[in-house]
Every structure is written in C-alpha cells, then in structure tokens.
Specification:
The protein is mainly beta and 284 residues long. Helix content is 7%, strand content 56%. It has helices at residues 5-16, 55-58, 186-189, and strands at 29-37, 40-48, 59-60, 63-64, 68-69, 78-81, 85-87, 90-92, 95-102, 109-114, 132-136, 139-155, 158-176, 194-198, 201-208, 211-217, 225-233, 236-243, 246-261, 264-272, 275-282. A hairpin with a 2-residue loop joins strand 15 (201-208) and strand 16. The longest helix has 12 residues, at 5-16. It is elongated.
Length: 284
C-alpha cells in the first residue's frame, strides 16, 4: 500500500497542476496608437483586418458605397481625447467616440464621430445631431496589408492622424488648443520690443510674424539662444525654447517678467523654479 502512494500522488499532481493559458490568433488582431502633444493625448483603439489579396474588393464591395463603415473590425474603432480639439472645422469636446467613414465612389467621404463609443462594427449609426461630421477626401496609398492607424506628422499646433488599408487611406488633421497662446498682436507686443542688458548678456526682443521672440546672446557668440515669449498677462511671458524656428519646450515656472516705470517698460526679470535668475535694464 505504501509503495503505491508515490504513483497515486503523481497522478493527483498531474490533474491539479494549473492549465497553461493558451494564446489564440484571431482574424483581426487588436491594436492601439496614442500621441501626446502639449498635454493633449489622442488615443485610437481598433482591430486590424488584413487585405489578403482583396485590395480591389475592399471599398465598394466588402464595404459598400454610401454606408457608414468603422475603419477596423469587430468592435467599432474608437478615438479618445483628454482635452478639446478641432477636426476639419469642428470643435470636438474631450471624450471617447466611435469612428465611422461613409464611403463614396466618386466624391469625398464623410468622417463621422459618434458619441456612442461602445458599438459593434455592424451597428452602423444613423445620422443624428450629436455626431460630428466632416467631408474628407480619400487618397491613393501604397498597398497596406493590415489596416493601420498612425500619426505621421506632429507639430506644436496639432497632429495628422492617418488611416490606411489596401490601396486607400485618409488623413485627418487634429488641431490642439495650446496651453499657452502662441501669437500676439503687434500692438500688444510693441511695449516690449527692444534690447536689454541681462547679466552681461544682450537680450533682444523682436516680432517675427505674429510671435514675440527673445534672442539671448553672450558676447559675440554666433549661436544665440532663442525663446518665443508666450503671453500670460500682467507683463509676464513663458519662455518657449525654440529649435529650428518653432517652440520645442515650455515650462510654466520659466518665464520673463517685464517691469515698468511710470507705465513704460524699462526692464525685465527672468525666473526659473520660482527663483529670480536675472535682472535686466532696457537700453535707450
């Protein structure tokens, strides 16, 4: 009896051992892509159907003309914004939406953002007043086997969101609302223009287009540091570090505070981490 116990224990352990979790391949694998710019995050969740040699049948046959189609598979493709944005003339509140395209053979398509995000791909939404709709022109693209959403272009004012599948795609410009204003009128900028002497350095403030720019030079250096001054009000401007002509980085606690005497701007102070780092007088 005792000699049989090891064999019985071995059999019991075999049945009690945890069953390994098996992975599974499904026809349209899930994917997600996200982009953050200036605190605004855009996230697309979708499934990726494959062409499998059906490029000529995708648009108009598999997905009929004139009907809303979610650019994905299974659950409807969704897009989420953590802050308000602008898309093709529409102000879009923060939130999560299902994404649809009304396909047309010889005219622009219609982009539809439906506030009901949790839809299946066969639940084609009817037009309603809560949707955001805009005309969009499809483009010919190189063969894309698996449907793909991406952000091919990013700037300080927004991103381009692109969908490709088969031989067609769409590009959707998404404009963001910047944390700090990027422009200033010539009249509002005029009081600050000129040259300042800052800790032995020259600090020049000038207008470039609709931007107020500060150029900080040390001696005769040919490589000055440039900042765009982003208005906060009350003579205070956030310093936006510039690279290749556009703002690359901003910090709310790094700013310039202009000072006045008898109503006229006569100097400035630079601040970082709530500490004054320099004081400058305006040159006559």
């Amino acid at each position: 009896m005792n000699r049989s116990w090891p064999a019985i224990a071995s059999i019991m352990l075999t049945f009690l051992a945890p069953t390994p979790v098996l992975s599974q391949l499904i026809p349209s694998e899930k994917a997600s892509v996200s982009q953050t710019i200036d605190g605004t995050t855009i996230t697309v969740n979708y499934s990726r159907p494959r062409s499998r040699g059906r490029d000529s049948l995708i648009y108009g046959t598999m997905e009929p003309w004139g009907r809303a189609w979610t650019p994905g598979a299974d659950d409807a493709t969704t897009i989420e914004f953590n802050r308000p944005v602008h898309i093709l003339g529409n102000a879009i509140p923060a939130g999560r939406y299902s994404v649809w395209l009304v396909l047309r053979e010889n005219s622009p398509w219609t982009l539809v953002l439906e506030p009901r995000a949790n839809l299946f791909h066969t639940q084609h939404p009817d037009s309603n007043s809560r949707q955001f709709r805009a005309s969009i022109t499809p483009q010919a693209v190189p063969h894309t086997e698996a449907l793909t959403w991406s952000f091919p272009a990013v700037s300080i004012t927004g991103v381009t969101l692109e969908m490709r599948w088969g031989l067609r795609g769409v590009s959707i410009p998404v404009g963001i609302i910047p944390t700090f204003p990027l422009s200033i009128s010539a009249a509002d900028a005029a009081p600050y223009l000129g040259e300042y002497q800052l800790n032995g350095q020259r600090f020049t403030v000038e207008m470039r287009g609709n931007a107020l720019v500060a150029i900080q030079r040390t001696g005769d250096s040919d490589n000055p540091t440039e900042y765009q001054l982003l208005p906060l009000g009350n003579d205070r401007f956030v310093q936006g570090l510039m690279l290749r002509g556009e703002v690359a980085r901003t910090r709310a606690d790094t700013y310039v505070q202009f000072t006045r005497t008898d109503g006229r701007v006569t100097g400035l102070e630079t601040w970082a981490d709530d500490k004054k780092t320099g004081t400058a007088k305006r040159r006559p």
